[in-house]
Structure formats: C-alpha cells, structure tokens
Amino acid sequence: MRVLGIETSCDETGVAIYDTDRGLLADALYSQVAMHAEFGGVVPELASRDHTRRLLPLIQQVLDEAGMARTELEAIAYTAGPGLVGALMVGASTAHGLARALGIPVLGVHHMEGHLMAPMLEASPPAFPFVALLVSGGHTQLVEVQGLGRYRLLGESVDDAAGEAFDKTAKMLGLAYPGGPQVARLAETGDPGRFRFPRPMTDRPGLDFSFSGLKTHTLTTLRQLERDGELDEQARADVARAFEEAVVETLVIKCRRALDDTGLKRLVMAGGVSANTRLRERLAHEAGKRNARVYYPRGRFCTDNGAMIALAGALRLLAGERDEVGSMKAVPRWPMETLAAPAGG
Ligand code: KG4
Ligand code: ZN
Questions:
Q1: Measured between alpha carbons, how far is 197 from 31 in angstroms, rounded to an integer?
Q2: Where does 2-117+301-338 sit in CATH, by number?
Q3: Residues 5 and 310: beta-carbon distance below 8 Å
Q4: pLDDT digits (tens, 9 = 90+) for 318-327
Q5: Ligand 1 atom having least distance to the Cα of 162
Q6: Are 59 and 15 a contacting pair, CB within 8 Å?
C-alpha cells in the first residue's frame, strides 16, 4: 500500500510517501523555525497560515521524487493530534479533500504514535515488545509497547517536557528558538565539573519526571553569576553543560529503572530530544550493561516529519482502519494511552 503522510501539528510541514512493500519512497520537510525564531517560540496563527502555503507544493514535490502520479496513491495518513488545532486542521482538511477527490481511504494518526514508530523506518527496526522513551517539546513519557496501539504508560512528566526545559533554558542563556540543539552545542565547551544541578525525582521510586525545578535552578545559578560579575561565555557554557548533564542523567536513571521493572531488553527513543548526542551515548552505554539494545531513528526523523506519520498510518490503514467520509479529526489534546490496537491486530 502506497501511503501519503502529512504532518502539520506544530511548526514543521512534513510530507512523505511510504510503501508497505518497498519502504520510504520520498519525504520532504519545510521548517518554519526561522519564521518563529523572531518571536522566541511558535506563533500558532502564523504556523497555520504557513502550513497552508507549503503543503500542496510539498505534496507535489514528494510525488515527483517518488516518480508517481497522484492517482497512484492508495491511502492518506495525516496527524490528527495532539498539536495546535489550527495547524492540525490544515493537514486534516487537505488530507480529507485529496482522499475524497481520489476516492481512497484516509486516516487521522496520533502524532506521538508516529514518533514511536519512527525507528521502524531504519534498516534494523526494533521488534515488539519494547520500552519507549518519548521525549519531545510537548511530551516526556516512558511507555511499555507490546504492539501497535498496545501501550502502558509507565511514567511521564508532571510539569515541563524535557524539550520544553531545553527551550526555556536556551531562552535564559540568550539562545535562539528552538533551544535544544543550541544548548547542546554550547554545552560541548562547558566544564562538567563546575556545577552540579539536581536530578529531579530520582531519589524516590517511580518513573515520573519533573523538569520545572531544574529550570528554576538554572535561572538562580545564572542570576548569581550575573550578580558576581562572572557571567562570561565560559560560565554560560558551564551552565548549559550542567543543565544537559542533569536532564540526560535523569532520563537515563528512569530508563534503567523501566528496563529493570519490565524485564525488557529493547529501548526505543523518539521525539526531538532523542536527537541529543549525549543522551544517545549514555543510554547506549547503560543498555549495554544490561544486554539491552537502544533504537532510534536517524536525526531528521527524530524531530517532526511526514515519514513517521505515513508509516504509523500505513500500519493502521493496512489493518482496515480509516476515518469516515467527511469526518476529519483535529484533536489538540489526545492522551496516547487511549489508543487501541487495530481490530485483529
Ligand atoms: O518532536 P519535536 O520535533 O516536536 C514536538 O513534537 O514537540 O521536538 C522538538 C523538541 C524541541 O523542544 C527541541 O528543543 C528539542 O526537541 N530538541 C533537542 C535536540 N534537538 C531537538 N533537545 C536536546 N538536544 C537536541 N539535540
Ligand atoms: Zn513531535
């Protein structure tokens, strides 16, 4: 089945064509990051308008890349949530309109299920069951995954998501949006021995996370340095390093616990923060000690993209799932644990 995937939940317009026999045929992405950077974060109305501008040309681009005519598409998958409702509606209405015109099935996909399935785009995909660490701008979750739509939430952030903490820390350090990659870059020149930031909620049992206290700790440290006249470039790098170390170690401790609790030997990481090199290295090291293996998608499939939506949609479409004609879905808040396995899946 050749599936067109459409992602418009936030600030990236992603489109791809996934063939369930041949794999990924084409994918294209337009990032609005430069447009939102000026405002220090995503402006929802601007995001929706820009998706409207970019989406149809990107669909044509992937068709050309795949050497396909529109009429050769067999189904369409789009992100139905969670995300910015106006942005989601652009993808949803385009998908439904196109599907209606072509007379093919269409399905709204859960954005985080897309992230979760993204490692399956790679050459040696993980087999079920596995533990998944989902770390994006809006989510920090540990999930036990028995199969598509068979999820048990093990733990999640009680306040800020890991990516959000990176973005807010970047702002405090005067770095541009989105902050994750910038904080990581600055941290490279930081001295890991100068500051030690707290590892929130690691001293008690359980798999929940909290990152807002860490953010406050970062702010307090920066203010103190400023008062002491010591806030130079090296100090900023040292703070970035201490922050990154704290987030990474907190995530690693909880992943280790999740592997031990479930007895599983596969760990999948997905979402924007899974692009973080230090996190990847530390998790691979810890997993190695337990004879476990870590799986993650290539860099550009860690952050939002159309390929993961095409793939996750294809798995459900193959099982016969589809939206009813004319009932497009755009759901800003949509807990992933409410998803079910496809009938007969
Ligand atoms: O999955 P994603 O593209 O969008 C959401 O669904 O939220 O994740 C974006 C998040 C942002 O918060 C960004 O700062 C973070 O992922 N991020 C990183 C890195 N690359 C992206 N955080 C830490 N280190 C990175 N290398
Ligand atoms: Zn995402």
A1: 33
A2: 3.30.420.40
A3: yes
A4: 999 999 998 9
A5: 12
A6: yes
User: What per-residue confidence (pLDDT) applies to 344?
Assistant: 65
pLDDT of residue 345: 55
Conformation bin of residue 229: beta by default, left when phi > 0, alpha when psi is -120 to 50 = left
Q: What is the pLDDT of residue 40?
A: 86
Model pLDDT, residue 269: 96
DSSP assigned state of 157: B
Per-residue CA distances from 307 to 7, 147, 171, 241 (Å): 9, 19, 30, 32
pLDDT value of residue 343:
85
How much is the pLDDT for 279? 98
Using left for φ > 0, alpha for ψ between -120 and 50, and beta otherwise, residue 239 falls in alpha
Residues 6+ apart with CB under 8 A from 246: 197, 198, 199, 200, 214
Output the pLDDT for position 266: 98
The per-residue pLDDT for 96 is 98
Distance of alpha carbon 222 from alpha carbon 215, whole angstroms: 11
- Residue segments in the chain with a per-residue pLDDT below the cut of 70: 344-345
Give the pairing type, strands 106-110 and 2-7. Answer: unpaired
Averaged pLDDT of the chain: 96
Residue 248 has which token pair?
A: 């990474």
Kindly report the protein residue whose alpha carbon is nearest to atom 16 of ligand 1. Answer: 272
Q: Report which bound ligand comes closest to the CA of 272.
A: 1
129-296 has CATH 3.30.420.40 classification: yes
CA max distance for the chain: 68
Residues near ligand 1 (Cβ within 6 A): 10, 136-138, 163, 166-167, 178-181, 184, 271-273, 275-276, 303-304
State how far Cα 136 lies from the chain centre. Answer: 4
- Which helix (H) or strand (E) covers residue 165, if one does? helix 162-172
Strands (E) in the chain, as ranges, are 2-7, 12-19, 23-31, 75-81, 106-110, 130-135, 140-147, 150-156, 266-270, 293-295
- Kindly report, as residue ranges, where domains of CATH 3.30.420.40 are found in the chain: 2-117+301-338, 129-296
